[in-house]
Amino acid sequence: MTPILEIEDLTVSFDGFNALNHLSFQMQAGELRVIIGPNGAGKTTFLDVITGKVKPTQGRVLFKGRNLRRYSEDQIARMGIGRKFQTPRVYLNLTVRENLELAAARHKGVFATLFQPLSREERDRLHTLIDTIGLRPKANFPAGLLSHGEKQWLEIGMLVAQSPDLLLVDEPVAGLTDEETHLTGELLVALAESHSIIVIEHDMEFVRQIARTVTVLHEGSVLCEGSIETVQNDPRVIEVYLGA
Ligand code: ADP
């Protein structure tokens, strides 16, 4: 089976410095993959290159077998790669439901956002999504009244509303309470039943909650990959990351 994401010998240089250095990576559809690594390991650049924000200096990124090199960031998003940044970007004056409706419409293009109402089926899907992200009691609240954790879930919902095949989620639990962190883990595990997901995260307890396979980046390459137990007990990982 063709992997959903395949990265071959990827190097990204900034002024001669290799932020990514001959990195290879593979992921099958339906995987929930966690990426960890010390500051400067190349995690952000890794996401930037998958979304097309940064182009490879060398090597290839294949999404469902298609080389992404020729495509713009917008085209790549439309091909089915969605990214959630660390800071929530929701519309504070719109309600939870309106934020989700706007995200779903925007995915269909500017014209649709302005002129085409959502279909019955699309509305039903958003209705279910509001339950999935745990915001049913606040569906008609302006997003500005949500807690930081709830805004994170809303933004994850807005991403899902755009029907991506691959979700890239950057540090989703930074600044959340323990309870919100746990609920975020449950949400990502639930979404992983129908999406492929890459999560970048530092919080090791959270990583233990959600991870099936962990990839450790170090100095722009994959240092080690495997189950959470394998990674935690690898002396190289302990030296560069966990022991720090
Ligand atoms: P991480 O997200 O793991 O902290 P980054 O991908 O942000 O790592 O950065 C990897 C390395 O590449 C760092 O040493 C960083 O300073 C460098 N880097 C990232 N982006 C740029 C850039 N636009 N120009 C120069 N150096 C960069």
UniProtKB/TrEMBL annotation:
Originating gene: urtD
Matches recorded under InterPro entries: ABC_AA/LPS_Transport, ABC_transporter-like_ATP-bd, ABC_transptr_urea_ATP-bd_UrtD, BCA_ABC_TP_C, P-loop_NTPase
Superkingdom: Bacteria
Entry GO terms, CC: plasma membrane
Organism, as annotated: Thermosynechococcus sichuanensis E542
Pfam family, one: ABC_tran
GO MF term (any one): ATP binding
Residue intervals of the ABC transporter domain: 5-244
CDD domains, sorted: ABC_Mj1267_LivG_branched
Keyword set, alphabetical order: ATP-binding, Nucleotide-binding, Transport
Record-given protein name: Urea ABC transporter ATP-binding protein UrtD
Residue ranges the record marks as coiled coil: none
